[in-house]
Amino acid sequence: MNYDLTDEQQMIYKMMKEFSDEVVAPGAEQRDKDKAFPKEIFDQLGKLGIMGLPFPEEYGGSGADTISFAIAVEELSRACGSTGITYSAHVSLGGAPLNLFGTEGQKKDYLVPICTGESLGAFGLTEPNAGSDAGGTETEAKLVNGEWVINGSKCFITNASYAKIVPVTAITARKDGKKEISAIIVPTDKMGFSVKAPYEKMGLNASDTTEIYVEDVHVPEDFMLGKRGEGFKQFLITLDGGRIGIGAMAVGIAQAAYEKALAYAKERTQFGRSISKFQAIQFKLADMAMKLELARGMLYKAAWLKDHGRKFSKEASMCKLYASEICMETCRDAIQIHGGNGYMKEYQVERYMRDAKLLEIGEGTSEVQRMVIAREIGC
Amino acid sequence: MNILVLLKQTFDTEENIVIENGQISEENVEFIMNPYDEYAVEEAVKIKEEIGAEITAITLGPSRTASALRTALAMGADQAVLIEWDEQEADEWTASNLIAAVVKNRDFDLILGGNMAIDSGSGQVAIRVAEKLGIPHVSTITKLTLNDGTATVERDVEGDVEIVEIQLPFLATTQQGLNEPRYPSLPGIMKAKKKPLKTFSVEELSLENEDVTTATVIIDQYLPAKKQAGQILEGELQDQVSELVQILQNAAKVV
């Protein structure tokens, strides 16, 4: 056993911490109010080689490990949840499927701009009637004269407004009433492809959440990503990695809420002493510190398993489920410790809570995580 | 062009500092590259990018100090030298002797170091090294322009600017305003481990015993007294003024 980060991981942590404190945090509150996407932050992250963090150097990536990815997501999210989710989705939903399943040519064409930050990464899976239940997928692709002709729509797609391509899952055949689902790469400048961002969200206001409309979009037959008919299976593999990203976001936001609550409790005086001297407040803070430690431990374990080529589905689900739930609890208690001030935007903890709620929903709800874990333990 | 950068690893003064038995506790302390030295590294890397240079970062301290050198390597330095020093902190005399002993066997055109370290704040080590090497130095620089064999340097003199022309090789200490230190890039971090980091023991430097014996002793260290809350005077302006004079005369006893 070794609980120390490696030299590289420590340096990445330091760099990401400084970057997050100095560049990401200062505008976070305003961006939340203005619903302003932090494009310039991602340009800078691109220059620093962070956008292609875990991908091979031959495609412009930096070849770092999953623990480093978790550290980067955690630090960005500690400063700004919207920046954290944009980055996490960019890497784990946008870049990872191309890296895992793409052909050499697809990687050269589409993974490279993702690594440099020229394009953000996005993936089109969710539809109004299909999320974790892929059976509801309605988007359909038909092979006509060597081209896929795709029709359908997607919802809740992160980053699509800033993406050069969006792979989408679509029905590519029907056999005995069963749908064959494949992933097809769709360049976003194709005729018939449109992106709308109509949502009014509870939180993560500075992230790009879109609807995608695909109307008679033609792409060459070899734009298939991975194997035909394995679109959903591939996506489940992708999601295992994505859950580490969500877990890291949760740890980052929980850390931010905990730090704010601890500082406030020490500073706020009532009944002649700082409220951190009251057991009712102390117990909340002690629980926060403990849960954070446990969630981070699970996060690093899931990332470590992935880095060592071991099976990590169960641990990724546990990490995502536990971290997102303790993140909500921590945010709730952080607001409580702040009292009336906590309800005010100025103190930031209410933003953390609004941002945190998505983590119990996105990339598989808490209920779906429990289904995954139950299946993994043999239920 | 060969550039040497002298740097120090310090504790982060923005973190909570705990003093135990007159010593700063290293328990749970965050160690960072002295911020003034970051300007020195950045300036060296900028020169390297503009006209090409081989940059060597040098420091002394216990093994943990290597991480400050790795940061310099990640920012763009080419190699690093660590002088192992495990005892209590070297004073300016010892530190400059050790560094000069390493530097004098090397080729260099320019030596850069921070104006001072944020922990001890003496601002002496780098300029002592210049003295021991018999080269000129210019301190607290805010602009550096290299010409052919000379340099034009702007230095901060208590808020004013002094422009100095100086012959290479020389040593300069860097001041805030010289540049904006970069974040180490991720590829830089990944490459840093593969760059050479040479370690010297004090014995290998074959110095006289007195050169490595600290010439000063820290007798005590303590934290500054907690700042008292200010007093806000109220009432008519006239009354406030007389009350203030009263306080300055009788309570503060400064008038």
TrEMBL record, chain A:
Q: Which UniProt keywords apply?
A: FAD, Flavoprotein, Oxidoreductase
Instruction: Report which reactions are catalysed by this protein.
Output: a 2,3-saturated acyl-CoA + A = a 2,3-dehydroacyl-CoA + AH2
Q: Where is the Acyl-CoA oxidase/dehydrogenase middle domain?
A: 122-217
Q: What sequence ranges are listed for the domain Acyl-CoA dehydrogenase/oxidase N-terminal?
A: 6-118
Q: Specify one Pfam family.
A: Acyl-CoA_dh_1
Q: Which GO terms describe its molecular function?
A: acyl-CoA dehydrogenase activity; flavin adenine dinucleotide binding
Which cofactor does the UniProt annotation name?
FAD
Domain Acyl-CoA dehydrogenase/oxidase C-terminal: where?
Answer: 229-377
InterPro entries from the entry?
A: Acyl-CoA_DH_CS, Acyl-CoA_Oxase/DH_mid-dom, Acyl-CoA_Oxase/DH_mid-dom_sf, AcylCo_DH-like_C, AcylCo_DH/oxidase_C, AcylCoA_DH/ox_N, AcylCoA_DH/ox_N_sf, AcylCoA_DH/oxidase_NM_dom_sf
**Protein family:** Belongs to the acyl-CoA dehydrogenase family.
- The protein's name: Alkylation response protein AidB-like acyl-CoA dehydrogenase
Species name: Scopulibacillus darangshiensis
Automatic annotation (TrEMBL), chain B:
Q: List each copy of the Electron transfer flavoprotein alpha/beta-subunit N-terminal domain by range.
A: 21-209
Q: What top-level branch of life does the organism fall under?
A: Bacteria
Q: Name one GO molecular function term.
A: electron transfer activity
Pfam families per record: ETF (PF01012)
Name its GO BP terms in alphabetical order: carboxylic acid catabolic process
Record-level GO cellular component terms: cytosol
Which cofactors does this protein require?
AMP
Q: List keywords of the entry alphabetically.
A: Electron transport, Transport
The family note in this entry says: Belongs to the ETF beta-subunit/FixA family.
Q: What does this protein do?
A: The electron transfer flavoprotein serves as a specific electron acceptor for other dehydrogenases. It transfers the electrons to the main respiratory chain via ETF-ubiquinone oxidoreductase (ETF dehydrogenase).
Family matches, as PANTHER family: ELECTRON TRANSFER FLAVOPROTEIN BETA-SUBUNIT, ELECTRON TRANSFER FLAVOPROTEIN SUBUNIT BETA
This protein's assembly is summarised as: Heterodimer of an alpha and a beta subunit.
Name of the protein: Electron transfer flavoprotein subunit beta
Identify the species of origin. Scopulibacillus darangshiensis
